[in-house]
Give the backbone structure.
Amino acid sequence: MNVVVCVKQIPDPADPGALDPDTKTLKRDVKLILDESDSYGVEMALQLVDAAGEGEVILVSMAPNNERSGLSTALAMGAASATLISDETLSGSDALTTAKILAAAIAEREPKLVITGSESSDGYTGTVPDQIAAVLDLPSVTMAKSISVDGDQVKVERQTDAGHDDVECPMPCVVSVTAGVVEPRYPSFKGIMAAKSKPVDEKTVADLGFDADSVGWAAAGQEIVEIADAPQREAGEVIEDDGEAYNRIVAFLDELKVI
Amino acid sequence: MTLSTIWVHAEAMDGTVSSTTLELLTKARDLADTVACFYAGDDADDIAEQLGEYGCETVYQTGDLEGALVGVPVAAAIAEMVDAGDGPDAILLGTSYDARDVAARLSVKLDRTVITNVVDVEVDDDTLIGTEPIFGGTTEVKTRFTGDGPYLMLVRPKSFPAEPSGGPAADVEDLDVPELGASGGARVIERHVEESEGPKLDEAAVVVAGGRGLGEEEKFAMVEDLAKLLKGAAGASRAIVDAGWVPYALQVGQTGKVVKPDVYIAAGISGATQHLVGMKGSKHIIAINKDPEAPIFGIADLGIVGDVHKVMPKLIEALQGR
Ligand SMILES: Cc1cc2nc3c(=O)[nH]c(=O)nc-3n(C[C@H](O)[C@H](O)[C@H](O)COP(=O)(O)OP(=O)(O)OC[C@H]3O[C@@H](n4cnc5c(N)ncnc54)[C@H](O)[C@@H]3O)c2cc1C
């Protein structure tokens, strides 16, 4: 059973960089890493392929400048190969264009199952998983806490506001995975060494059959008209606890008439 | 300037319309001459009055979806109406798991972009501009739709107040859900509801939230006790959700719930931007943290530099005595 995992390579969220005021896109001159949100999907896919006893995990990533550092992490975890789509014309692409590009690359791999994160850590639109499914005309389950394969279908525990739903879905399908639900493995030294020789298939927009003007800012259907600092809240009174500070909280709650 | 028609994604639980739906209806009334809703289910009659009271004139319902996840059938039905020339200028959805699926599927069906994480909307000539926080809420960008509608927006909960307009009950009309083929194959087999006492996190007047500073899972009981005493809800930072101390449903922040209670008490929470974006709209904020440099103090009305294990028990005891 071949499983494709979509992985995004992003600036370190601890140091997210800034918007370039001229191009209005994220400055990508920083080193990119594997989005932690995607490491859960990679782990789940490895476990599913393991349980199936056959098949492999294939990565698909769209990134600027043929960036590979995040892919290398996922290959070192145990993925077998990757498709990397990189093209200057993709700059400024919205989630929909991103999904179309990813879907085209996924289709070439003919997987039984496509796994994504539920949202990226830097863009967090949360729409790409179901957009990919829609482009490929596949069923999908978003917000999975767990996935198991049962014959020709997947069984998914889907996070809901009230708890979770047990969902069944025929394969091929797309499943998005929520953060923190499995413990992603650390790449071993052997894994890191092996990753260096794993095949990474580099594709351009044209390779996937798209015109340059059907992607990027030109096709985004939206434009940024203003960038501003978010309004700040003022700091209030800060006191050191001398053992009695709880009284100050009680008084404040009294003032606010919540007690 | 206003648009002619906006549709709002109506969501409801046990016959009660979600507060986010009412917020969006309130805003949509300002933005467009006519406001209608679409709804996944066959019981729109039960909510037609509430929707009408907030300005919705017509609610289109899909009928019984027989356990299907809502994204595929709802998007297919709406796309048919749009293709037939009966679509709106814009479609607003409140960010929820189901709404994201609907918006994503619709965006492909209609070949239109979606502007997501919107916290404010304005009309600009015959298009819409959305405001979205980025970088964990430190920066805000305004994004305008180019090209043709219908414009698709996912709006964060609590972005607008909900105010009734006193309109009559909405008319209920049926949507045609076309044949879905394989793409409609996902089915809910069973629903599991984790019961929780007290008010809902995103509706409570008081929220008491705990973070990694509590030190261990058992100490979350202090947060729950205090929340109960204040008739509020318990919340959490992502750190302790990821650690498995509390369920994801309690998470406040960028990837969790947005809350705007009268009082928010943060216990042992550092105040990372991704947490702040989910609670900095609270009317009053109280923070307890042993680190005087913790960013949470930068937005707190009352900050106590102290140990949660000392301050919280005393606070709870004092409140129990009243
Ligand atoms: C893409 C992305 C999305 C995210 N989304 C969210 C989100 O939705 N919600 C969210 O909360 N986070 C989110 N985060 C994580 C966020 O960046 C922080 O890591 C998280 O909020 C930290 O949680 P915390 O404050 O509980 O833990 P810490 O940052 O570890 O802070 C613990 C605090 O407790 C204090 N403390 C320790 N001991 C005591 C004591 N005895 N008494 C008093 N104080 C004590 C410490 O001084 C410290 O300030 C997200 C991160 C990313 C990258």
